[in-house]
């Protein structure tokens, strides 16, 4: 691996108690706290940092806090933060945030162009549920939206699209501020992933210096360079296994134990049990249910679980959970 890349995360700060993060510097532009207070109060910045750190292990992070405890800020603060970044010795800027406010379009475009001219690569998320937002739509910025990919490392890229990159939307587990884990997805997750991907690319291919060179490299590595709005819409639709069709290796004993654990954990009534093998578990599970469910499965089967980037796909159904447990039991035996 080549030279270590520094990544600026402009967000809600970071969990200072998490020893996994390699924090090089930090500054606070949010409306609360002192200049050096980069402790995350909403969790969003920590989630993005965790994604980046797992895609690009040991990433050197410069934390620029602009979002408050409600994950909100102003366009003027964003511009101020980007002006500050001009003086940082980092090449990648992660902006898992968006604004629809066109009032600041001109100065926001100007500072993004300046950063790009200085050799910095800005990666910004498209606002979820929208076809346009800033800074993602600024030509000197790599805009990111997301769909579901079978391979989490797949992406589409075309420099001529207003939003150049389409990456994986599938939620994955990330550490929370309370010492547990939760699912995190959407365009913010996809953007953080792509910042980590670019960091890996720049480490391997150190001759990439300009935005044009980066575009060329990303187009060459993308699995698709041309798409339309219908492709995006179709890609957002879930494609989940709901029953035993196509699954021929599941151990029925393990499967029945999984069903029992789900029933006990969420107090599911007897007459509802049959639905557990014929419906996606997303009909039952809420945002904060995934971690306690996996903790109970982990305890019951005495398996080890790496929660970092554990995919939502594992929780598609009782069958997919059974497949996961079988794989961990096999790993314990090897």
Features:
334 residues; alpha/beta; 8-stranded mixed β-sheet; two-stranded antiparallel sheet; 10 strands
Helix-strand category: alpha/beta
- Form type: globular
Residue share in helix: 25-40%
Model regions low in confidence, pLDDT < 50 over at least 5 residues: 243-249
Distance between the termini: 30 Å
Mean pLDDT: 92
Tell me the series of helices and strands, N- to C-terminal. EEHEHEHEEEEEEHHHHHH
Strand content: 5-15%
Count of individual beta strands:
10
What order do the strands of the largest sheet run in, or round the barrel if closed? 2-3-1-4-5-6-8-7
Largest sheet: 8 strands, mixed
* Radius of gyration, CA atoms, in whole angstroms: 21 Å
How would you describe this protein?
With 334 residues, this protein is α/β, with parallel strands linked by helices. 35% of the residues lie in helices and 15% in strands. It has helices at 44-55, 75-85, 105-117, 186-204, 211-221, 229-235, 252-266, 290-301, 318-333, and strands at residues 6-11, 22-28, 60-65, 92-95, 121-125, 141-147, 156-157, 165-168, 172-175, 181-184. An eight-stranded mixed sheet has the order 2-3-1-4-5-6-8-7, with helices on both faces. It has a two-stranded antiparallel ribbon with strand order 9-10. Helix 7 (252-266) packs across helix 8 and helix 7 (252-266) packs across helix 9 (318-333). The radius of gyration is 21 Å and the shape is globular. The relative contact order is 0.11. The model is unreliable at 243-249 (pLDDT under 50).
